[in-house]
Amino acid sequence: MADLQHDLSRTAAADGFDDLAEPYPDEGVITAESYEPVSDPDDAPLTRAHAILAAHPVADGCNALPWALRRLSYYDLELGESTVDTDVPRLRGGHVGALFWSLQLPEGLDGDRAVGATLEQLDRAKTVARTCDEGLRLTATAGQVADARNCGRVAVLLGPAGAPALGDSLGILRQLHLLGLRALTLTGVSWASEAGLTRFGEEVVREMNRLGVIADLSGASAQTLRRALSLSRAPVLCGRSAARAIRPHPVNLSDDLLAELGAAKGLCLVPLSAEQTGPTVRDVADHLDHIRAVAGAECVGLSGTYDSGSAHPQELQDTSCYPRLIAELLRRGWEESDVALLTWGNVQRLLRSADFTARAAQQRREPSTATISELDG
Amino acid sequence: MTSLEAARDLLREFPVADGHNDLPWALREQVRYDLDARDVAADQSAHLHTDIPRLREGGVGAQYWSVYVRTDSPAPVAATLEQIDCVRQLLARYPEHLRPALTAADMEAARREGRIASLMGAEGGHSIANSLGTLRGLYGLGVRYLTLTHNDNVDWADSATDEPRAGGLTAFGREVVREMNRLGMLVDLSHVAATTMRDALDTSTAPVIFSHSSARAVCDHPRNIPDDVLERLPANGGIAMVTFVPKFVLQAAVDWTAAADENMRAHGFHHLDTTAEAMKVHRAFEERHPRPVATVSTVADHLDHMREAAGVDHLGIGGDYDGTAFTPDGLNDVSGYPNLVAELLDRGWSKADLTKVTWKNAVRVLDAAEDVARGLQATRPPSNATIESLDSPEG
């Protein structure tokens, strides 16, 4: 994490495209053709689920542990903490390999209070991660996520934060990125509303591409999602969306949008939230089946939403429960390779693409000096 | 060799580490951070006190760039982040001249490389919005000092230029100082009330700084440092970085400014009003009462006294360029520092002592603050105190 704090001097390499040629290791990239099975098809589904998850752990797209811990003066995540859904023993039991820590703000914060509260959330997340450095490791890039995993740590990625965190300023976006922010949800601001993205909103997406901050569009309007899909050079994320065809919920995605997201190689992370998916493991599996069919196996992932205040489906009450869900998918005949994409491979691809896009963009784009008053009047 | 040549020689080896420069604010106000419109690698003397050629001519080797924002800003935290972004853009744009610096070791590396070590200081507790998490965020972004107040009180500390309210630091204010010690962020006592200075000195276990303040005994202005506080610097290890602002350092200018402000109010304007009508009133006043002019010698008088009160190991320089409308004759912009060093040589200051004033003391305090931080981080977790928990009546 030291590099997040100390990379004041980071500047884009100025000498041509040599930097782009730097190889990206194949580690973590999964394809159906090259996939080598790690479980015995004759074993029980739960046994197979553990075997597969041991090789391809869960990259969980939404976890709010730091926020849930804010009122606890003492906690021990290494030994286990029963007041929350997430701790190291249960993360290990659930084969979780990476977590996005949500930095969503309490309702109604805007302006400077949103900016300040986001700084506090980033600070709180780092403090929690540092108190638990045997189990967790703060990471910023796909490479660091792979490193963390090789060291037996759960990789923690910071974000998504809410768009009000930007204070309508690209300079602030850059500072939040330097503090480790890796994803931003494009809702709740004048430049990303029901009407879609304004010109400033488009510039925010371009600057996010340049920095490697992933756009999260769960809860965004269809217009915003479509514009972001066509504009963003890096794949986007719907960090907590299920299928509206199965269960109507404002944050769930229609089949049209799922298909468009799939065509753009974006990622739909299905929340383990009873409100959005239904109350059972089978309900969650139904959403996963449907989204895989509509968007493609390369475009679906998981979002635990633990410690965010959501009610979870039965048998999926905390971060240790992922093997049950995977066992259900295996019973339904999911190929191992599709499971591996679902749990780990797809998020890795997204992170790698974001890193690559950022490095490429930094070769050709200066930091944007655009202001909201200039672009949106 | 003239004393000016000797001064330039001295600065080549031990350049000026200046405590306060408001170039980022000037860029925000003048051109909204359009760095093409103010290319500081070229001469900007028509618009700014500061540009790289003049920094070089002035023998500047380290600069704390102020990421100041107004106390009445509707969004002080956001504006502070934009100011930090501005400094970063400057560093990215002029890497052969400006070297990012976060530590004393970085300052020395910059000196070896012949680049200007660029540090950041936030000017006023309003930039952290009563939040230690936000304070840590600013540290994470590279801010290495926080001036506890600007011209107005904050909820937890009294300013020198506001009505006393807390009587110095509140309990939360002392916690802010302790957390800064733990981080290795310097406690800057320019702008604060004398009561706040004393409370901070009682609380801080690391050396403090005055990033741009002079001596109250020489010129009685609340922005300057009283002798009893200067006399505590040896025990604390901190430094007072003399400032050049005429209306703080020259008694005649203090009096003139008071009269000019009174004249503005008498005509129904706020004393800082810069509208056309207000400026007309102000210019008429200035025609009747010529503005007194400070000189290099005025500033040297302060340093002579500060050396008596605090000792030569506790002095530094903080010009406040681009943060003040007027500057002394001979110190008109950032190219002027050699004139001050020459004046001090003429007054019999030894070269060894002057290298402390220009460079060594400033590096020492940051190094010491880092040491204290390492010790505290081994024993103290980040503070999660809130202003409500420490300062509310029932708390």
Automatic annotation (TrEMBL), chain A:
GO biological process terms held by the UniProt record: proteolysis
InterPro entries linked: Metal_Hydrolase, Pept_M19
Gene3D superfamilies linked to this entry: Metal-dependent hydrolases
One Pfam entry name: Peptidase_M19
Gene Ontology MF, one: metallodipeptidase activity
Protein name: Dipeptidase
UniProtKB/TrEMBL annotation, chain B:
GO BP annotations, alphabetical order: proteolysis
Top-level taxonomic group: Bacteria
Database matches in CDD domains: rDP_like (cd01301)
GO molecular function, one term: metallodipeptidase activity
Coiled coil: none
Pfam families: Peptidase_M19
Gene3D superfamilies named among the record's database cross-references: Metal-dependent hydrolases (3.20.20.140)
Protein name (Swiss-Prot/TrEMBL): Dipeptidase
Native source organism of the sequence: Streptomyces tuirus
